[in-house]
Amino acid sequence: MSRRAVLATAALGALPLAACSPAEEAPPKPVRGVAMRSGRLTTKHWPGHRPQWIVMRPATHRRAPVVISLHGKGDDARSTFTDLQPQRYILQTGLAVAAVDGGDYYWHARRSESTGYNGISSNTPPCNTGAMVRDDLIPLLARLGLDTRHIGLLGWSMGGYGVLLLASVMGPASVAAVAPMSAALWTDPGLSAPGAFDDRQDWEQHNVFTRRAELGRIPIRLVCGTSDPFYAADKAFVHGFPAAERSDVTATFSPGDHDPTFWSAQTGGQMHFLADHLHTH
């Protein structure tokens, strides 16, 4: 079974998946006219780790607004630029794109690195890769000269859930727009993938279905394939917004699966959506 097939199966909660960590590999090369920087992040939110970060931006626009991309389960910072390839749209949109390794912890506070719903806890320290993005990555991007006064959020699968959760925490004062793809959402904790949450309480605490009031104040463009295992939950999430809040929440459901072929084809539309909102702030 291919790695992508394993990911699709794990999304249904049928198969746990260990984190893949090809962070030591050379980062992908940017396209002409796009500058790239990478390094290791120092963070208290993921003890014992120095996750890799990668930034691509227009070579002539150091102060570009920034989109932060959150990767899916089994992926890492490099996957943004190898699977989605947003660098194809950086010059068109005038945006920078940043990504960071986040492990398989669904971008929220976890009791320990090895604790998961229906899993076994260990004595490893707790981690919070979502807080790492907010408290460590964004200040780093500001020090690099990027415009972080308002950010855009892009993510797929686990990262699609992650950008919705992070946006609900940071709010419209910090987040200009959110562009999730095939968001890993579940309508019941018992349906969630092994390792996605510590337990039922963790799922309830970080359930984006109950955060629509906060998310309804931020423009959202969700895309998902109609053959995707998350199609029903993503549709329920979008349709659950009150009519008064739905004007800034749009969704496109089109033929496609839970795979990089679909996500890569949607990246251009998501980048232009984010640019429309970032350039108006």
Number of domains: 1
- Note the gap between the termini: 46 Å
C-alpha Rg (nearest Å): 17 Å
H/E series, N to C?
HEEEHHEEEHEHEHHEHEH
Please give the CATH class: Alpha Beta
List keywords for this structure.
single chain, 281 residues, alpha/beta, eight-stranded mixed β-sheet, 10 strands, 31% helix, globular
Describe this structure in words.
This protein has helices at 3-11, 77-84, 90-93, 129-143, 158-170, 200-205, 212-215, 231-239, 260-278; strands at residues 34-40, 52-58, 65-70, 96-100, 109-110, 127-128, 147-156, 175-181, 220-225, 249-254. With 281 residues, the protein is α/β, with parallel strands linked by helices. It has one domain: Rossmann fold (3-Layer(aba) Sandwich). The strands form two sheets. It has an eight-stranded mixed beta sheet, sandwiched between helices. The chain has a two-stranded antiparallel ribbon with strand order 5-6. The chain starts with a helix and ends with a helix.
Précis, in short:
This protein is an alpha/beta fold and 281 residues long. It has a single domain (3-278), classed as Alpha/Beta hydrolase fold, catalytic domain (Rossmann fold).
Question: What order do the helices and strands come in, and which of them pair?
Answer:
Elements: H1 3-11, E1 34-40, E2 52-58, E3 65-70, H2 77-84, H3 90-93, E4 96-100, E5 109-110, E6 127-128, H4 129-143, E7 147-156, H5 158-170, E8 175-181, H6 200-205, H7 212-215, E9 220-225, H8 231-239, E10 249-254, H9 260-278
Parallel strand pairs: 3-4, 3-7, 7-8, 8-9, 9-10
Antiparallel strand pairs: 1-2, 2-4, 5-6
